[in-house]
């Protein structure tokens, strides 16, 4: 099996971080004023 | 031109940093800009409210549309009407007209605006927490200025629907969410009308 080099590992980590940030943004937004009624 | 793996990673790093900064700073950004705002300007419209605040800047005639103006919190928003909070998704405040009265009538007029969302960090009532008991505010309704004095400010849980209950005298109830990044509680401002001619 081909081993990933350091740049490829960094890319994967950054993409995971971006996905986590988007999820956090969506979750935080759902907790804000959208629920006002 | 060939883009290297390192260049892609550098770009992704910038995206991660900018995203994290936005998530962390956006809820407090309106408070940061508040520090640098000119807070000496008074109500922009000629009328009783203006005479109770500092006279400076340009005087405009009373607005034709329905508006709420609170000089101490620098709030000047159109009052929209409709069947749901969605009417203010692009800005303004919403008068709950389904079970609350018109500002001119006896009863409880309830006006709501957003505090914060990531699409619109500076919601209409973001600075409602800066309103204090005794402050003057005005509702411009159908071309007329209705002046109020803040009688009470309080924080209640979101389940406290009694803030919308009908009252036996003219009352104005404003509310929004608090603390800023949650809809956990409601920040409520209750104001009573000032009779014309009784203003200082």
Descriptive overview:
The complex is a heterodimer of chains A (37) and B (200). Chain A is mostly helical and 37 residues long. Chain A is 68% helix and 0% strand. The radius of gyration of chain A is 16 Å and the shape is rod-shaped. The model of chain A has no long low-confidence stretch (mean pLDDT 84). Chain B is 16% helix and 28% strand. Chain B has three helices and eight strands. Chain B is globular, with a radius of gyration of 20 Å. Chain B has helices spanning 5-25, 29-35, 48-51, and strands at residues 67-70, 75-81, 93-95, 108-112, 136-141, 144-157, 171-178, 185-193. Classes of the chains: A mainly alpha (37), B alpha+beta (200).
Write the layout of secondary structure elements.
The complex is a heterodimer of chains A (37) and B (200).
Chain A: H1 6-30
Chain B: H1 5-25, H2 29-35, H3 48-51, E1 67-70, E2 75-81, E3 93-95, E4 108-112, E5 136-141, E6 144-157, E7 171-178, E8 185-193
Parallel strand pairs in B: 2-3, 4-7
Antiparallel strand pairs in B: 1-2, 1-5, 3-4, 5-6, 6-8, 7-8
In short:
The complex is a heterodimer of chains A (37) and B (200). Chain A is mainly α and 37 residues long. In chain A, 68% of the residues lie in helices and 0% in strands.
Order of helices and strands of chain A: H
Structural class given helices, strands, pairing of chain A?
mainly alpha
The number of helical runs of chain B is 3
- Give the overall silhouette of chain A: rod-shaped
User: Can you tell me the residue ranges of chain B where pLDDT is under 50 for at least 5 consecutive residues?
Assistant: none
Describe the strand arrangement of the main beta sheet of chain B, using strand numbers: 1-2-3-4-7-8-6-5
What ranges of chain A have pLDDT less than 50 throughout 5 or more consecutive residues?
A: none
Q: CATH fold name of the largest domain in chain B, please?
A: Sortase, Chain: A
**Helix coverage percent of residues of chain B?**
10-25%
Largest inter-chain interface? A-B, 21 and 26 residues
Strand fraction of chain A equals under 5%
User: CATH homologous superfamily of the largest domain in chain B - what is it?
Assistant: Sortase
Number of β-strand runs of chain A: 0
CATH architecture identity of the largest domain in chain B: Beta Barrel
């Amino acid at each position: 099996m081909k081993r990933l080099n350091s740049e490829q590992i960094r890319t994967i980590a950054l993409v995971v971080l971006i996905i986590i940030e988007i999820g956090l943004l969506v979750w935080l937004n759902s907790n804000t004023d959208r629920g006002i009624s | 031109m060939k883009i290297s793996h390192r260049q892609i990673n550098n770009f992704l790093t910038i995206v991660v940093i900018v995203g994290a900064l936005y998530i962390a700073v956006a809820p407090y950004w309106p408070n940061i800009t508040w520090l640098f705002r000119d807070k000496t300007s008074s109500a922009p419209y000629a009328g009783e409210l203006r005479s109770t605040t500092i006279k400076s800047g340009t005087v405009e005639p009373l607005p034709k549309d329905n508006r709420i103006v609170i000089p101490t919190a620098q709030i000047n928003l159109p009052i929209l009407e409709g069947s749901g909070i969605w009417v203010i998704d692009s800005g303004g405040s919403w008068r709950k007209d389904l079970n609350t009265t018109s500002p001119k009538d006896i009863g409880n007029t309830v006006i709501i605006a957003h505090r914060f969302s990531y699409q619109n960090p500076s919601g209409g009532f973001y600075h409602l927490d800066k309103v204090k008991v005794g402050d003057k505010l005005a509702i411009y309704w159908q071309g007329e200025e209705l002046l109020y004095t803040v009688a009470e400010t309080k924080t209640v849980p979101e389940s406290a629907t009694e803030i919308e209950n009908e009252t036996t005298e003219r009352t104005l109830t404003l509310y929004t969410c608090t603390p800023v990044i949650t809809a956990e509680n409601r920040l409520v401002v209750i104001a009573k009308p000032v009779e014309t001619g009784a203003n200082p």
